[in-house]
Batch of 4 targets.
Target 1
Amino acid sequence: MASSSLSTLGHSLRLLPLAIAFGLLLAGCASVPTDPAARAEYERLNDPLEPTNRAIFGFNEFLDKALIKPLAEVYHFLLPDFIETRITVFVRNLGEPLTFVNDVLQGEPDRASNTLGRFMANTTFGVAGIFDVATDAGMPRHTEDFGQTFGVWGIGEGPYLVLPIFGPSTLRDGFGTAADMFADPVTIGVNEANVQGLALGRIVLTGLDARARNLQIVDQLRSESLDYYATLRSAYRQNRRSEILNGAPVPQEEGQSGFEEYEEFDGIDP
């Protein structure tokens, strides 16, 4: 019975981004301004659901300050740096198969070969992925997901969305997150193994590790931003455009977010 309940929970988590994306589109959108200047700004921000997004953002902030951040602080305090680094490398290695799938779908054979080589090297010579021997061997890490793949395929990002728990997104990336969860080879393998609690444990560990790595940067952003919501919105969209271009400079007309000094920030979502 417990195994069945965990399986149901895992399935629900995989469907969550897709359901939220539909729900937000059906929610009351802010009316489109008729004034030309206001209309231009409205289209530039591409955030027609801003009132709903800000409400969800407020919920996420409450959840982070009340639960997620304190857990991450305890996690960071209790674990020696060496162990914490090993966990980071381990959870990142588990993400390599999904990156490989998306490298292939984006028609990037060289990057796909690099990703496959990294996963094989780190899983074998890196002691089940707890050491990153691949980077030292000349195979640098990169990440890809279905949101990026959809972007490479020419699918527009759609309106900006803030998803409960998952945080900043767009309509395209919301569907991409759902696709990631369904098509991730590691997730598929875990589900096939049917090991009680393993899928949920991976999600929790990945999210907790990511939040712990960004404790100082998130605090700094919160304290320095006049509008933290707007700062994250701008930073997220600029970062995603850069990722789709595989690190190439974002065209100047896309604008700058003022986020460049936080290059090490790599998100707090699972």
Target 2
Amino acid sequence: MPSRTAPATPSPPGHPAPDHPVRSAADVLVLADRLFQWADARTWAGPDPYDGLTGPLGRLAAHRVLRQGLLQTVKRCPADLRPALGIRPLRTATATGCAAGACARLSASPVWRERALRLGRWTAAEQLTGRYAGLWRYEFDVQTRWSYYPASVPNLVATTFCADGCLDAGTLGDEAVGMLARGLLEHLHNGEFFLYTPTSGVLVHNANLMGAALAARLASTTPLPAGLADRLADAARRAVEVSLAGQRPDGAWPYGPGPRLDWVDGFHTGYVLLRLDQATTLLGMDVRTPLEHGVDHYLRHLFDGPLPRYFADAPTRRDPNNDATAVRMAAWAAERGFTGTDFALEVLTAVEGRHPGTGTGTPRRNRALWESPRWSAAPLLDALTALHAVLPG
């Protein structure tokens, strides 16, 4: 069983406690409102870690090595190279979809309900038509160590965040839901597991389980023909079984199978656990033992006190998405009884000072990474509203 007294020890050496810890649901709501207004004032547009190929040089980089080199240089450079390279701010559907779902949690408030609807409508308007009808894409070409996918091709991560946000906000009509369901099965499922992109055959556990959770949600909560709903549920079950078989003896999930994909990091582990829980709850599958084993590994090996680690058991390396996902997962762990809410508040207090949108601080290095709507503001807003929902009062 995972430790129910979370690894929420006092701040470890080198990580002094903040002067103004977050203590209550009211504090969290203030941060969420401040972050929303910061991002909304920029129309949810800004830099992205993977936007390096959107400028003129990116269009000239025809070889894989050149693309990856340019993308990683822009992503990792302490100074922002985007203005000099002609890379413009982007508003991505993934960011607005994630934020729409975050706002929808607070939709008992008319203000937050209006925010969810506006972001959900923006996101729904970006749903693809034509060959890949019903799905969503990134607005930039991506070259990773294992794959290349252009902006014209949908991917499962974007589709999941966008679809969930639109469904939470209620901005997808029945026809759009049907297109999504058919597109998910036709283009992002290979009969065994869900694919990151239609052109990739690589198993990526977090993406596979995102697809399983979305398929299970569509099958059980949306108006679809019975045959289509059954196909979605069957595909989701098979996908869950594939990733359960990929869990390591120590409870961890690597990014994917094989030596090139065998790393274990915090935010992808968080995605795996959250989506595994969502999918199997909807499908009625009992995965208590592997889920608890995975949570135990996550809490023991991907935190240094309340500060999230990027890679398992590695020295801490700060990243806005990893930090935000740690808060989201601490809220989920508290909701499921794996930890207490005190740990979630300590994690938030440990990480929120670097996010410019909270108004509490600004990183000196690689500021653009922390100002990214998709990589920073939207996932942190999602974490804040999820944490608010589990706190007393």
Target 3
Amino acid sequence: MTTDVQPIQSRLQPPSYLDVYLRVLSALMLRDMRSRFGGNYWGYLVQVLWPCAHLAILVGAMTFRGLKSPMGDDTMVFIATGALPALTFQYISREVMKGYMIHKPLTYFPQVKRFDTVVARILVEIVSSFMGVCLVCAVLLCFGSDPVPVDIFTSITGYLTAIALGIGVGTINVGICSVFPGWAIGYILVTITLYLTSGVYFMACYMPEEIYYYMRWNPITQLIEWVRLGYDPTLPVQIDYLYLFGWVFGSLTIGLLMERFVVRAQQ
């Protein structure tokens, strides 16, 4: 009797907190992926394919206007090194906020906390960004371009910093949206402005010094230059690493404090 009762008791034991938390995260991530563009998993590929479409549009525009790459001879690599870090920051910082708003009704279930929706969307966006990078590299190889930087460590750390900054700003956006939902629309205008002035399709370091000084206050500009420095170490860029790390850790700290004292206060 003892040997028969013990397996039954083990099966009747409630799952641990970690098991419940991981199940909640996996369910939120699967729901997140399926809710994109058409309500199925195939729609999730649209977001992964978008960097390639974006690259094709910018390269086509530069080719049509007869513009040459100011960094090396490969226009596709030049555009990719600017667009990928900028889009990565833009997508993560915006989608984390959207994920919180979309999954907000699920927080009525006691197992789902509002911060869980943020963590699930962050994980999905990180995976999506790396899939996008791999796909863009594959496309570049197919067109005869070399996507491998001269200094791989420099480019990778610059790209990872763009991801970290997107997470930090995204958590701040969650705190703002919990009080003012209209910020979701206003932030789109902010990201468009940052994107157009960050140096995706031009070299900020070749601008006049008076203009370059003010452009360097935009952290996205320095992130793009950081990634491009791995492809051309001779670029006359001025990267303030302390300033960028201050943005990353400062935004993440403010975002977590807002989640603790602002977002939770709305529950």
Target 4
Amino acid sequence: MKWILGLLIGLFSIDAHAQSSGSSVLWEISGKELTSPSYLFGTFHMLCATDYTMSEGLKQKLLKTNQLYLEVDITKPGLQQELMTQMMLTETSLDKELGTDFHIADQAFQKITGLSLSLFKQFKPFVSISMLALQTLNCPDKIQPETILSNLAKNAKIRIGGLETVAEQAAAINAEPLDSQITSLKKMILQFERSKKEMNELVRVYQLNNADSIYAYLQTQSMSTEFEQTMLIRRNRNWIPKMLNAMQSAPTFFAVGAGHLGGKEGLLVLLKEKGYQLKPLEL
């Protein structure tokens, strides 16, 4: 179940006492051929409105740049439809995969979301899990920090781009075997109260603003080599050339899941290896 929460949110829970000094989720990128700094921000993809306030300092860093790069350009028309198309099950269906468990799963799913699982039977389990994940946030008003950033950028006429396409992001999600996704869906339905507690911890931890500790905790949670390679390392490596091109063309603000920042092959290390200077900033 943790792999899907990590994918949706970009980080896992950490111990408050595991923090290291000199780290942050907001970094200034300078040096080499850059005449003006760019910025890298580790975000949390969905939060209760009451749990997040974008600081004035963060806003000003964005407004000092000429372009905003997210994992995917969420302002692109038809984005949701394109993602749903990528998530279609073509040779089977969710009810077939769940078999005799489908009826029980459907009843529990309806109790949690108010929707029938049958509505999503032609989609990969990721879609249903996403619906459940939204409900782990116990609040009426939810926000996506990337949406706030993109709205600020549009109002300031700052260009918006994506480090990967919808198809590339979907390919990373679909790399998780179908049977593993099915197992995660069943566990999340049956252990939904536990998932809510995990989400509460994730929110608390994100507010610690520490990229090093986020990655360190991933290691303590027995993150599989396959997950790290597919969801973190491979995507980080793919993003670096695009980040370099963007920064070389204009000062850029990057906002990606906070789990991508830390580690030996995290974005912070990869940028340093390319000769850039990284400085942690206060939010």
